[in-house]
Amino acid sequence: MLYALTCLDKPGALETRLATRPAHIDYVRSLGDAVKMGGPLFAEDGETMIGSLLMIEAPDQATVEKIAANDPYELAGVFESVSIRGFKWVINAPEGAS
After folding, report:
1. What parts of the chain have a pLDDT lower than 50?
2. Distance between CA atoms of 37 and 39, rounded to whole angstroms?
3. What pLDDT, on the 0 to 100 scale, is given for residue 94?
4. Within 10 Å of residue 73's Cβ, how many Cβ atoms?
5. Alpha-carbon dihedral 11, 14, 16, 18, rounded to 10 degrees
6. Does the predicted TM-score (pTM) go above 0.85?
7. What pLDDT shows up at residue 97?
8. 50/21 Cα distance (integer angstroms)
9. CA distance to 1, 12, 50, 51, 85, per residue, from 89 (Å)
10. What residues does 83 pair with on adjacent strands?
11. Could you give the strand order of the β-sheet that contains 79-87, starting from the edge strand earlier in sequence?
12. How far apart are CA 78 and CA 56, in angstroms?
């Protein structure tokens, strides 16, 4: 099943986010094909990163919870909130994604 992992940053966490970003990118890449897409969320200015969105294929939500808990951003205290929801890719889905 696909899961949407949405993480929003704590106010004032941008410096920590930027310092931790290389470790976060390495971690997400280490998850391989389980990550179907991902990237930062932005503030209204379109430039300031304020969170992350990942689409993860996993057998269950508990697996995604473990992934989220081990993210370097989470370990560094960047996130204010983390949301995990099942997701069905319908529009423009790659073959086999829905």
Report:
1. none
2. 7
3. 83
4. 23
5. 160
6. yes
7. 65
8. 12
9. 10, 33, 24, 21, 12
10. 6
11. 35-42, 49-57, 2-9, 79-87
12. 20
Residue 76 main-chain phi, psi, to 5 deg: -85, -5
The pLDDT of residue 95 is: 77
Q: Which residue has the tokens 């269950």?
A: 60
Assigned token pair, 66: 């473990």
Token pair 């099943």 is found at 1
What DSSP string describes 44-79? TTSSSEEEEEEEEE-SSHHHHHHHHHT-HHHHTT-E
As a whole number of angstroms, the distance between CA 25 and CA 52 comes to: 11
